[in-house]
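Today's session is about reading a structure prediction critically. Students often jump straight to the picture, but the first step is always the sequence itself: look for stretches that repeat, for charged clusters, for runs of hydrophobic residues. Only then move on to the predicted structure, which in these notes is written as discrete structure tokens rather than atom positions. Here is the chain we will use throughout the hour.
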Amino acid sequence: MTERSYRVGVIPGDGTGPEVVSEGLKVLDAVRDGFATPDEWMRAFSEINHFEEQLVEATELIRKRVVAVWQVVSQLRGKVRERASRPLSESGGLTAIFERERHRLRVEPAAAARLLRALTLSLTHPLLSAEPAPADEIVSVVLHGIERVR
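Below is the predicted structure for this chain, in token form.
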């Protein structure tokens, strides 16, 4: 992972008062210098990225399975089709990925797995989506929602 740096523009006297800006700069310096060492920051970013990468890989598998299942189901007739339309079973593997990151979740790992699977299904199903959504986009919506970052 490469180290990133950000340039933050600060204009003292921009209506918030020079003392607010100088105190804000002290906070930014303290966070940069005192909160964690560069190695700790890199490890934290790596862990976050690894979690999202695992979810993207799992979501890609789900997407492929949804497409394959719907190709088969679309060929079925009558009672066979009725038997194929039952609720999704639990996904132990996906739940396990969420379980490892339980401390980051607002919902239980099994519920997070169901949400990811349901969103993947709805964004991949040929009757609901003209073009299947990419796995990384689905994961981003599950983890971060649809609200713009302010």
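Discussion point for the tutorial: The mean pLDDT is 77.
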